[in-house]
Amino acid sequence: MFAGYPLIAGHTITAANVTDDERRAIARQLAQFLAAFHSVSPDEARMRGAQPDPVYRLDPTRHKPTAIDRLSRLPEDLIASRLKARLRSLLDSLPTIKEPSSNTLVHGDLHGSQILVSDDTHELAGVIDWGDVHLGDPASDFAVVHSMLPRDCHRDFLQAYAPVDPMFWSAAKARAIWHTIGVVTQAADVGDKAAIREAHSCLIRLVED
């Protein structure tokens, strides 16, 4: 069996090595995309096959210990000890969501290798890899804002998206940390230098005050 989809012109943020200024420029575009996607009716999403989150993406009891273990195993020349210590401190201090919602259609695995930008202007061109789409909490998708976009444009994102509970916004940062640790671990395992570079830059953003 063969399935075909229209080609989206452009490259992933990871492959294009998008600058911080270019990331700031797509903050509102990403917000508008997610606002539209998250507004899909849960009933329609279920009718089209969306299921509840199978891996409990916002559950710290499942993901924090794994993230800490992976972080400790990453070599010093990949992630410096000072950065590891700061990430560990954030994992211990950031709030988590005790009862995530389960009525929003979310992508579930957003990061630089899933978001396409145009070849010429590096504007948002598309989102790919929908294998993790599910009905869950929008905080799962907000995590990419914390990791991928400079902090000084988060306000632009939030203004274009909608009001977001500050606690849920902070909890999305915890998800961003353990998710990005997973991304850099996988990239290191396969020797993907571009993905390592992108994930490392995300971790740097996550520890910025």
Strand order of the largest sheet: 1-3-4
- Give average pLDDT, whole number: 95
What is the CATH superfamily classification?
Answer: Aminoglycoside phosphotransferase (APH), C-terminal lobe
Q: Let me know the number of strands.
A: 5
Query: What is CATH's topology name?
Result: Aminoglycoside 3'-phosphotransferase, Chain: A, domain 2
- Beta-strand content bin: 5-15%
Number of helices: 10
Percentage of residues assigned to helices: 40-55%
Order of helices and strands: EHHHHHHEEEEHHHH
Low-confidence stretches: none
Helix/strand class:
mainly alpha
| Tally of separate domains | 1
Q: Quick one: CATH class? A: Alpha Beta
Overall, the morphology is: globular
For the termini, the CA-CA separation is 50 Å
**Radius of gyration over C-alpha positions, nearest whole angstrom:** 17 Å
What's the main sheet like?
Answer: 3 strands, antiparallel
Question: What is the name of the CATH architecture?
Answer: Alpha-Beta Complex
